Amino acid sequence: MKKITKEEAGKFMLRKGSSSPVRTAVANMHVGDVLLIEKQDWKQQNGPGQMLTRVKKSTGMEFKLNSIATGEGWIVERVK
Q1: CA 72, CA 44: separation in Å to the nearest integer?
Q2: CB 65: neighbour CB atoms within 10 A?
Q3: Which of residues 80 and 16 earns the better pLDDT score?
Q4: Is residue 72 part of a domain?
Q5: Among 35, 38, 62, 72, which has the highest number of CB atoms less than 10 A from its own CB?
Q6: What was the pLDDT predicted at 64?
Q7: Does residue 44 lie within any of the structural domains?
Q8: Is 15 contained in some domain?
Q9: 64 located within any domain
Q10: Domain count, the chain
Q11: Strand, helix or coil at 19?
Q12: What is the CB-side half-sphere exposure of residue 22 using CA atoms within 13 A?
């Protein structure tokens, strides 16, 4: 454990409640950012579409979701 400055603390992504690291990364995206979600990062049975819909409803952010043809994961782009 160590003390850090406020500037150093501002560099970290903080998660809200028990949200997953993927949801935290999505919630911290800026317009135009693109995120690759690999299969090993996603623990749910279905893809991240439903999670993106929930984030959209709670924050107003809009995303474009594409599935990688080889089945390796998904590409998420924040559009609004």
Answers
A1: 14
A2: 15
A3: 80
A4: yes
A5: 35
A6: 97
A7: yes
A8: no
A9: yes
A10: 1
A11: coil
A12: 20
